[in-house]
Amino acid sequence: MPRTAVTGYRKASLNDPYSVYFNGTSAYMTVPIVPDPAGWCFAMWLKPSDKGTPTHTFISYNTASFTNGMMVAYGAGKSIIEVIAYNGAATLSNRSIAAAPGDWVHLAATYLPNGTCKIYRNGVLISSATSTGTMSVATAQTLTFSNRSFTPYYARSNMSNIVWQNTTTSWTDDQVRDIYLTNKLPAGTTMYLALDEGTGTTATDTSGNSNNGTLIAPTWTIDTPTKLRTANTFPQRKTPDNLLSNGNFEYAPPFTAATTGSGRWIDGTAAGSLTNSVYKWRLSVGAGTPSAQYDNTVYKNGANSLKVTSGVGGWAEVINGTAKDFFVPVLPSTSYTLSGWIKTEYISGDATVGAQMFAYEYSGAIVGGSLRTTTAIKTTTDWTEYSVTFTTASTTRYLAIGNSIKGHNGTATLSMIAWFDDITLTTTAPYRNRKSIDNLVINGDFESVPTFTAATNTASRYIDGTASGLNAVEFPYKWYTPGTFANATAQYDTSVKLTGTASMKLSTTTTAGLASAITGNNSSAANIKQTMIPVLPSTSYTVSGYCKTNNVATAAAHIDIYEYDGTGTVGATNTTNTLTGTNDWTLVTITFTTASTARYLTLALRNHVAGNVSDAWFDDITLVKN
Predict the structure, then answer these.
(1) For residue 563, how far is the Cα from the chain centroid?
(2) If you write DSSP's letter for every residue of 226-252 in order, what string do you get?
(3) How far apart are CA 377 and CA 535, in angstroms?
(4) 50-68 pLDDT, tens per residue?
(5) Which of 26, 47, 148, 542 could make an S-S bridge to 158, C-beta 3.0–4.6 Å?
(6) Residue 173 φ/ψ, nearest 5 degrees
(7) What CATH architecture does domain 264-427 belong to?
(8) Domain range 461-625, CATH architecture
């Protein structure tokens, strides 16, 4: 049932059970509105796919001459989304953002004739320029998504939460941020399509204007923009930190037969499907005549498991996809754990391997790398948990996760059945290591740790395990030494921590020392807007964390919270309770209300009063909206 726009903090898609997948060969959507030459704005969640040439068209209202109307396109191999408007003879505005294939991105753009045209990525203004002229009408064309309006030219993508407004008043930065953060629709919205119906060919407009979309050959999928899903709302992941969709097989198709077709999605039929990826798992047959199905009679938890039957000497792999559009995006040189439960029934024969789970590493170009496997089973066993922890290679960008029986090797006679349930892939990568789904601080528990060679002792650098630090706009491990950092060191400390495997250690090396670590790069207004934490104005938040100290100066250890307005100018500051001297782990916290102008926050962990040679450790830092 379509839902209306919401005003809570989390992105609207958190509670959306579905998005629409357009297959790149026949699927698209049309809507009964056209962009107004007097001005328009739009926002949407988009997961682009690079299927190679030609250029992919995500939104189209233009003619074959490419001189009328507008379009949103993705050049093959470029990872750049362009929003283009035409004035009847040439391009009058062309704004672009970077967007990796296979990753959700929130895209917003505004157009005014002979006015400012802007493009936003994830609620942040990326660029703006003045248009040259007025967009011309694309006669007889219909606003079309994932295809060109004038000829079949399909794009492969996922889409969710599309907002369109024809308006002579451009959206402000705050309005775009509100759409991104809360899905608050601007007054006068022309069309809002949540794309969360989950079935059918109608996308319902809940703006009140009845501008419903017509879907052609859609695939409804549980792959939604927000990947932090709770077990209650999204049972296909057992924890918010599980990167694997439908790893507990609770999202299951109606059953008529076990799937036996190789290279087919498991859809409850014997043949399987070449296109219906909604249930997330795909059978690959290496030898023999194996089969796979969602089994509602044998399971560890919930109502289903994955059942794989090898047949004599069979080799079956059930994998979460076919390419990087489906595989799990991961970080290089980072530790991950694959775990799950397996139950087996031995029938006859023998083989070298048997039943197991595996993770296969791929580079960005989908070149295969290392294969990581759990213990192999060749006997009858009850439900047993298995896991493998590994560090990805420096070239790894994706993981394929699989459940397999290999009865074809060795004596090639093994026949067995294996059930798999509650499969999880967890990581210490920074976008997953939040203590709760509501924590806005990335890597606030310091479990994503760079390789250590020396404590960072340089100001205005990311803390990267080297003395000089990293001079960059962004860095996966997120914590940065501000310009006031002096006579001090900062490091991820694996020897002292409250929980997990590491904390942040801030040390002063002389009595004049000032040590800090902040959430992002504050060296310029542009960097502040790109790397700081987006927040809402006039809204209550709570910052909490734990601090342990050794000989710190009076009130030296605490957390400062700095607010920034939409231009990146610093505003109000709030400070937690402070610590002096030597203390065991102590809670430092504050609840505050942001100013009406606040748009970003940074948290500053402090050992920041001169006077002593000292140490302060911080762990489990959280920022939550009340």
Answers:
(1) 25
(2) -----TTT-TTSSSTT---TTTT--S-
(3) 50
(4) 665 566 789 998 878 778 8
(5) 47
(6) -60, -40
(7) Sandwich (2.60)
(8) Sandwich (2.60)
